[in-house]
From TrEMBL, chain A:
Gene3D superfamilies: 1.10.287.90, Cupredoxins - blue copper proteins, Cytochrome c-like domain. The lineage of its organism: Bacteria, Pseudomonadati, Pseudomonadota, Gammaproteobacteria, Pseudomonadales. Keywords: Copper, Electron transport, Heme, Iron, Membrane, Metal-binding, Respiratory chain, Translocase, Transmembrane, Transmembrane helix, Transport. GO terms for molecular function: copper ion binding; cytochrome-c oxidase activity; heme binding; oxidoreductase activity. It is a multi-pass membrane protein. This is Cytochrome c oxidase subunit 2. The keyword Transmembrane applies.
UniProtKB/TrEMBL annotation, chain B:
The keyword Amino-acid biosynthesis does not apply. It catalyses: 4 Fe(II)-[cytochrome c] + O2 + 8 H(+)(in) = 4 Fe(III)-[cytochrome c] + 2 H2O + 4 H(+)(out). PANTHER family: CYTOCHROME C OXIDASE SUBUNIT 1. Its EC number is 7.1.1.9. GO terms for molecular function: cytochrome-c oxidase activity; heme binding; metal ion binding. This is Cytochrome c oxidase subunit 1. Belongs to the heme-copper respiratory oxidase family. Pathway: Energy metabolism; oxidative phosphorylation. It holds the Pfam family COX1.
Length: 347, 527
């Protein structure tokens, strides 16, 4: 364990080292007595057994002494815990939502939100290319926060339980569907801090890392402004006139990020949990049914409602791609406007 | 009983029936104990082979041998089989064999129920293991099966899993009722409660724990069943339920469960250490009270498994303090064992080796347990390999070494032959080295930040994982040596006297070796 990058993580580290050394000392004493006894009090060295079998004084003593040690350990632990639970007076609030198998970050009141997906190429995972230093700990878009600022995290989940952990911040909070947990951090030094999901959340539990990039306050404001700009540009794409090729190209990328872990890059899925899309009735049938399942998901299965997760452009692109890939030859095109219209009709 | 003998069917009481039906229909505590022990060893090998698959995949970073879906099924089944199939039935087997012999009873109090509680197990595990071959695969949500991963997002085989857990629960509850009824009603005259061997005491307390918590587990899986098939929303927030409720219910069962798996080992070791130190157990009374305190505390600490789910500060503090308290009675036990050894006249045959390793390594597991109890530190340890190291240290050299120690200690009584001491010592050292090599490095990777239940990991964890895998393979392979030693001992060897260990105490050593099919038909006199 390392001392980490925050005041809280340092006091957790100190606690850890304190308990560790207390355990070492107790261990040395107890095992010391034991090994001494094992060396000396053996029949082979002609030892005659003693006959004592109780001593009230000693027994009371070794009940009281550990109790005192425990109290000594509990005091700093309680202080640290109270500190960790004080989420008041935050300067920036970020909502973290766990999805199978990615994180979603939303800067509350800032109109900025995005998904953070594993960026390690699958060729590295399947041992086809050399693994780099941050193997499995690299994402496409890290969570960006300013240095020296009290940031409050509101942690929740959309499907199963996940857990958001960054060791250097000593923040680990379960992301539970239907509940919002609070946590906070204030990081002293800019840098990149890495962690992982720590609650078993299905097959790709090991493939949803957390990356936090800490920027200086000025850089953070600049970054935030850029993101807002980008979000506006993204919205304009909805009204753009798309060609089939453009949509398929964009769709292939978005499919790899959002759909391929279940339905596989080949579209063959992992039946019966994750059905194939190649030649499937939905992906080759009427567009409305296809749009419906992508936008609304399918209750009682792992298929999420992507209508709330992805932009209209990406949904349209993915659907178009799915209808025209792996030998699916519907040849039609679903545009972002179709998605908007579909959502409107639902309301 | 006497009515049967009075009718003059003199050959009725002599020996076991011939052939397969002896085992199917038996109501004899020794036969049933034997079947429990063999069953548990078979499950130990099966669960162990799954651990080998896990360690083989984790031998190197990257995905080599299995895909993540199957990896999750392996971790889940490994946990379920080891907990419910290997450790618990092994202790029930020891209880069946030894409790009547230790308290001077002719058999268990409820022999027919005894037969039924055993035969439920092969049915339950047959069904559970068969799900691995079903479409969609077996349970893949971890042995703790947190909802909603185990309900809405589960493979279809989850229904079979629920049924299997129900059967195991029924079997355990019946076994526990039998133990309680036997101990409270069938003790020989003069065998007062405070004269009982500690193994009997710890089992009595364990049986009460089982009766208290197995119904809670049954309730938990029943709520899952309702959520999956009957439209309820106990564990789904979308329908007004609560996924955290699942964890509260599960761990209200789960924490006493971990003591169910260790208390009988405490008892066995408390017989074995005095026997080989040739000195009475130090602090018998405090041992009994410590066991009872641990059992009581086990009911009020469950949420320490849930420090990160967002329970309020006061709840967090309560569960932290209560958990730390467990260190006190556990410490008392360790100090008592060490004092028993102190100034004894010790020899180190296989049972003693396993018992001493038990005390040392279980204490190491206790230390990491104390560290995990500290809530703020737990935020860093929770769901990492540090936890995996912790519970394997209390379960492998705890429960399993306790079982090996018991097996070697009582094998002469069961078979009438001495086991091969040289091979048994080899078994001990290989297990000891393999086990430490497998689990000690897990502390380091956990503290360095490796989460548990992942099939692939960053390169920084690679070296320690490779060491762990080598240790695990060593430990796994060594267990075939144990099988060989036991078979060799059954088939022959130096005849064992009634009391093969000169320092051993207890009624079980007053009957011949091997123990006759029927013992203590007339109760012995206990002074």
């Amino acid at each position: 364990m390392s001392p980490g990058a925050t005041e809280v993580s340092r006091s957790v580290f100190d606690l850890h080292m304190t308990i560790f050394w207390i355990c070492v000392v107790i261990g040395v004493v107890v095992f010391g007595v034991m090994f001494w006894s094992m060396l000396i009090h053996r029949r082979a060295s002609g030892q005659q057994p003693a006959h004592f079998h109780e001593s009230t004084t000693v027994e009371i003593l070794w009940t009281i002494v550990p109790l005192v040690i425990l109290v000594v350990m509990a005091i700093p632990a309680t202080k640290t815990l109270i500190d960790i639970y004080d989420t008041s007076e935050s300067e920036l609030d970020i909502q973290i939502t766990g999805y199978q198998w990615k994180w979603h970050y939303k800067y509350l009141g800032q109109d900025v939100e995005f998904f953070s997906n594993l960026a390690t190429p699958s060729a590295q995972i399947h041992n086809k290319t050399a693994k780099d230093e941050h193997y499995l700990l690299e994402v496409d878009q890290p969570l960006v926060i300013p240095v020296g600022t009290k940031v409050r995290f509101l942690v929740t989940a959309a499907d199963v339980i996940h857990s958001w952990w960054v060791p250097a911040l000593a923040v680990k909070k379960d992301a539970i569907p239907g509940f919002v947990n609070e946590s906070w951090t204030r990081i002293d030094t800019p840098g990149i801090y890495r962690g992982q999901c720590t609650e078993l959340c299905g097959k790709d539990h090991g493939f949803m890392p957390v990356v936090v990039e800490v920027k200086s306050k000025e850089d953070f404001s600049k970054w935030l402004a850029e993101r807002k700009q980008a979000a506006l540009a993204e919205k304009e794409l909805t009204s753009k006139v798309w060609t089939l090729d453009e949509l398929v190209a964009r769709g292939e990328k978005a499919y790899q990020t959002n759909c391929a872990s279940c339905h596989q890059p080949t579209g063959e899925g992992l039946p019966p949990m994750f059905p194939p899309l190649k030649g499937s009735k939905i992906a080759t049938g009427p567009a409305a049914g296809h749009i419906g399942i992508v936008v609304n998901g399918k209750a009682g299965t792992a298929m999420a409602a992507f209508g709330k997760q992805l932009s209209e452009v990406d949904i349209a692109a993915i659907i178009t791609y799915e209808r025209n890939a792996w030998g699916n030859k519907v040849g039609d095109m679903v545009t972002p406007k179709d998605i908007v219209a579909f959502k409107k009709a639902q309301e | 009983m006497s009515a049967v003998i009075d009718h003059g069917h003199t050959d009725h009481a002599h020996g076991p029936a011939k052939g397969l039906m002896r085992w199917v229909l038996t109501t004899n505590h020794k036969d049933i104990g034997t079947m429990y022990l063999w069953f548990s060893f078979a499950m130990f090998l099966l669960g162990g082979s799954m651990a080998m698959v896990i360690r083989a995949e984790l031998f190197q970073p990257g995905l080599q041998i299995v895909q993540p879906e199957f990896f999750n099924q392996m971790t889940t089944m490994h946990g379920l089989i080891m907990v419910f199939g290997a450790v618990m039935p092994a202790f029930v087997g020891l209880a069946n064999w030894m409790i009547p012999l230790m308290i001077g009873a002719p058999d268990m109090a409820l022999p027919r129920m005894n037969n039924f509680s055993f035969w439920l197990l092969p049915a339950a595990f047959g069904m559970l293991v068969s799900t691995l071959f079903s479409e969609g695969g077996g349970p893949n949500f971890g042995w703790t099966f947190y909802a909603p991963l185990s309900t809405t997002y589960a493979p279809e085989s989850v229904t079979f899993f629920i049924f299997a857990v129900h059967l195991m629960g029924i079997s355990s509850i019946m076994g526990a009722i039998n133990v309680v009824a036997t101990i409270l009603n069938l003790r020989a005259p003069g065998m007062t409660l405070m004269k009982m061997p500690l193994f009997v005491w710890t089992w009595l307390i364990t049986a009460f724990l089982l009766i208290a918590v197995m119904p809670v587990l049954a309730g938990c899986v029943t709520m899952m069943l309702m959520d999956i098939h009957f439209g309820t929303s106990f564990f789904s927030a979308a329908g007004g339920g609560d996924p955290v409720l699942f964890q509260h219910v599960f761990w209200f069962f789960g924490h006493p469960e971990v003591y169910i798996m260790i208390l009988p080992a405490f008892g066995a070791v408390s017989s074995i250490i005095p026997a080989f130190a040739r000195k009475p157990l130090f602090g018998y009374t405090s041992m009994v009270y410590a066991t009872a305190s641990i059992a009581f505390l086990s009911f009020i600490v469950w949420a320490h498994h849930m420090f990160t789910v967002g329970i309020p500060l006061t709840g967090e503090l309560f569960f932290m303090y209560a958990t730390m308290l467990i260190a006190v009675p556990t410490g008392v036990k360790v100090f008592n064992w060490v004092s028993t050894m102190w100034q004894g006249s010790m020899t180190f045959e296989a049972p003693m080796l396993f018992a001493v390793a038990f005390v040392i390594l279980f204490t190491i597991g206790g230390f990491s347990g104390l560290m995990l109890a500290i809530a703020p530190a737990d935020f860093q340890y929770h769901d990492t390999y540090f936890v995996v190291a912790h519970f394997h240290y209390v379960l492998v050299p705890g429960a399993i070494f306790g079982i090996f120690a018991s097996a070697y200690y009582w094998l002469p009584k069961w078979t009438g032959h001495m086991y091969d001491e040289t091979l048994a010592k080899l078994h001990f050292w290989m297990s000891f080295i393999g086990m430490n090599l497998a689990f000690f490095p897990m502390h380091f990777v956990g503290l360095a930040g490796m989460p548990r239940r992942i099939p692939d990991y960053n390169l920084q964890f690679a070296d320690f994982n490779m060491v762990s895998s080598v240790g695990a393979f060593t430990f796994g392979a060594t267990q075939f040596l144990f099988l060989f030693i036991v078979i060799k001992c059954i088939r022959g060897g130096k005849p064992a006297p009634a009391k093969p260990w000169d320092g051993a105490e207890g009624l079980e050593w007053t009957v011949p070796s091997p123990a006759p099919y029927h013992t203590f038909s007339t109760p012995p006199d206990v002074k």
